[in-house]
Amino acid sequence: MGAEPLFTSKTDNPASSGTSPENLRISLAAAMTLGLAPGLFYRNACLHCVNVLLTYEKGCRANCAYCGLQKSREGDYGDKSFIRVDWPVFKTEDIIRLTLEKRKVVQRICISMITHERAKEDAFFILERFVSELRLPVSILMTPTILNHSDIDGFKKNGADMVTVALDAVTPDLFDRYRGRGVGGPHRWEKYNDILEYSASVFGKNRVGCHLVAGLGESEKEMVLRMQTIRDIGARSHLFSFYREKGSKMENHPQCPAGQFRRIQVARHIIDYDLGRAEEMKFDKEGRVVGFGIPFSGVMKIIEEGVCFRTTGCPGKTDVSACNRPFGDSSPRNIRSFPFKLNSRDIKRVIKELLD
Prior knowledge:
The chain is α/β, with parallel strands linked by helices and 356 residues long. The protein contains ten helices and ten strands.
């Protein structure tokens, strides 16, 4: 998926409108995987996680500056893109039926909440259905603003395999500016971190993810230190490169340089796989990574294997990440998070970018 005409976003969809829990939005990549939308993936990228999004007539109540679903973005909620692509609406029954038919491909399903008064109740309802009917690992991308500790206990009790918090911004100031008071939004840094930390205590090591978006204005050092904080509670970071959504408050905000994202990807791999720590890394006066805190030979091995440049997300059975979100943060012409194994040409390219 991406800027190239590799797919069509038009779907023959009888449930083009409707609300959850009877209906769910799914990513265009998931719709293609399930046969609900035509198209081909660039370089045969294969989606292993069906991402579903709760949906309501008036949409999300939050106003995150970079998000395509923000309430202040013009247009009908059902027509708003999210993470670069359309999220068409389909009947929940059809999604379950087709996911079962694609069991050889689909290794996980993820329920994404939004900020809405019905989202918690419906997330539990959908979770129970998915666990009982799909027999697949189920993740929940949570909205901490509308949750409390007992809800986290409930998600685990009702069969969630993993949970994730989309912290996105890595400093309190950036979070408040783009997600909280700065945009008239309901989200608070303290609440998000409280739910993240409690989730890690409930689900255990490596069973909680935290979304982080590179390029919101943080330095590489700030990103690396936040990733270490997340790792220290037993969670792992799922990286995204900022991509501006047309019509959002940040539609004119530049994407971070490729070199910045590559260095962060390498640092994340070292931290999340306990190969080194942020405090051992070195940074220049502008906060850029100039040393990864482990021997050069170890860094080169990580780079040449290429795994660190793959999309990070909840795991599957046969690949680095089931939630590989093909081209979710860039077009195929300028891949930031690779949804497939890198070839020798890809490795040469990322090495060049790393040195930028």
